[in-house]
């Protein structure tokens, strides 16, 4: 009995196999059984499946009778909405005019000129001429009145702001007073307009000397001044050009200005209907109603509209 049976030794060797394999075999024994099917069986199994029901048209309110549905559906997430920026109005226009004359008062003429349309070109003056125009005053003060209504058309906005200017000349010390209208322009809040185009800019400034008050004895009580003796029209033209036309019906002439620069004086011409005025070097103004055509010296006619 010194040596054991060969069968017993073989059993012992089988029982003492590697640990890893034993563990793997144990894990395999614990896993659920997986049944593999061939292609024919898979097709037959798919064919046996009942078709899925079509989704209901209203998916916002699930059926409360379905198992697991015990709460109302979640409300749809609110989408953020952009708050529209209000358009620049009459108060903004008054602030622009006030800032404009504040720059002139402190001698910042370049900054004041830059507040005009077309980067200052609408003033009708070069930067040097613009500075000379205001540098002759020792004192300068402007009172800003209440803006008029905003005129809107073709995506553009216009507003007139009354201004009274009091200034003292450097050389003579004379105090002069002028009053008139500053017209501002901007593009409406339309698609494609830049923020700079939506801001108020100065389109024209008609500041005329204040007429002296006549003595009462020189004006008969029954006399009334001719209401239409002087008529002023402001034209918005092609290419962003702004013109001021001052019609003197008593003299039969009109003076055209662009900003502060006088373009020329034109004489009235006989015409069947509308208006016609001619000046030197081909300067011409024709129109009917609010529509007009202006021809500058050496240039082609361009369309304008009275504002």
From TrEMBL:
InterPro entries per record: MliC (IPR018660), MliC_sf (IPR036328), NTF2-like_dom_sf (IPR032710)
PROSITE patterns: PROKAR_LIPOPROTEIN
Domain C-type lysozyme inhibitor: 235-301
The keyword Methyltransferase belongs to this UniProt entry's keyword annotation: no
Pfam families documented for this protein: MliC (PF09864)
Highest taxon in the source lineage: Bacteria
Ranges of biased composition (kind: Low complexity): 76-88
Region (Disordered): 70-90
Assigned keywords, A-Z: Lipoprotein, Membrane, Palmitate, Signal
Protein name, UniProt field: C-type lysozyme inhibitor domain-containing protein
Organism: Sphingomonas spermidinifaciens
């Amino acid at each position: 009995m010194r040596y054991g049976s060969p069968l017993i030794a073989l059993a012992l060797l089988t029982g003492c196999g590697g640990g890893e394999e034993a563990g793997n075999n144990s894990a395999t024994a614990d896993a659920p059984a997986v049944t593999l099917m061939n292609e024919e069986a898979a097709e037959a199994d798919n064919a046996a499946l009942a078709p899925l029901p079509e989704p209901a048209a209203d998916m916002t309110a699930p059926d409360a009778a379905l198992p697991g549905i015990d709460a109302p559906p979640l409300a749809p997430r609110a989408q953020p909405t952009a708050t529209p920026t209000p358009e620049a109005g009459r108060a903004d226009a008054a602030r622009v005019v006030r800032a404009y004359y504040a720059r002139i008062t402190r001698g910042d003429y370049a900054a004041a000129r830059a507040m005009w349309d077309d980067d200052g070109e609408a003033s009708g003056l070069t930067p040097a001429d613009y500075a000379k125009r205001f540098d002759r005053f020792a004192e300068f003060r402007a009172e800003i009145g209440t803006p008029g209504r905003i005129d809107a058309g073709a995506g553009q906005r216009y507003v007139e702001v009354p201004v009274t200017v009091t200034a003292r000349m450097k050389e003579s010390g004379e105090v002069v007073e002028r009053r008139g209208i500053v017209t501002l322009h901007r593009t409406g809040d339309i698609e494609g307009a830049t923020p700079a185009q939506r801001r108020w800019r100065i389109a024209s400034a008609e500041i005329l000397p204040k007429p002296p008050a006549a003595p009462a004895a020189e004006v008969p009580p029954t006399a009334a001044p001719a209401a239409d003796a002087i008529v002023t029209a402001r034209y918005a033209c092609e290419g962003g050009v702004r013109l001021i036309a001052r019609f003197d019906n008593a003299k039969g002439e009109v003076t055209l200005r662009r900003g502060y620069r006088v373009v020329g004086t034109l004489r009235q011409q006989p015409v069947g209907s509308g208006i016609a005025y001619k000046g030197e070097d081909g300067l011409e103004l024709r129109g009917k109603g609010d529509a007009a055509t202006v021809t500058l010296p050496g240039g082609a006619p361009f369309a304008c509209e009275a504002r």
